[in-house]
Specification:
Elements lengths: L2 H24 L5 H18 L7 H7 L5 H10 L1
Helix pairs in contact: 1-2, 2-4
């Protein structure tokens, strides 16, 4: 497997993990600080990847049922 393909797979796995963590933290009421830190991390990752490396981010974010409107807005404002 070429190294660029492996790097692409690692990047996708990283994005997926961060999104999963953001959604999990958003579902726990007492984890506001953790959720905000993870949202900030997601925004930093997005700045590096979007739009070329992560073209499906906006539909992914809007389709994430576990992430509330406040969290979605916070992520977008961090951009």
């Amino acid at each position: 497997m070429p190294s660029f393909r492996l790097q692409s797979l690692r990047r996708a796995a990283c994005r997926s993990t961060v999104v999963t963590l953001v959604m999990a933290a958003a579902a726990v009421p007492g984890e506001k600080v953790v959720a905000q830190k993870l949202q900030h991390l997601l925004a930093l990752l997005l700045k590096a990847e979007w739009p070329n490396g992560w073209p499906s981010f906006v539909p992914d974010l809007l389709g994430a049922a576990q992430v509330g409107d406040e969290a979605r807005l916070r992520i977008l404002l961090l951009l």
